[in-house]
Amino acid sequence: MLQSYLAYREAKKKGCYDAILVNRDGNITEGTRTNFLTVKGNTIYSPLEKDILLGVMRKHVLLVAKENGFSIEERNIPKNSLREYDGAFLTSTSAKILPVRKIDDFEYEKIPESVYRLIGLFNQAIQ
Question: Is the distance from CB of 91 to CB of 34 less than 8 angstroms?
Answer without folding.
Answer: yes
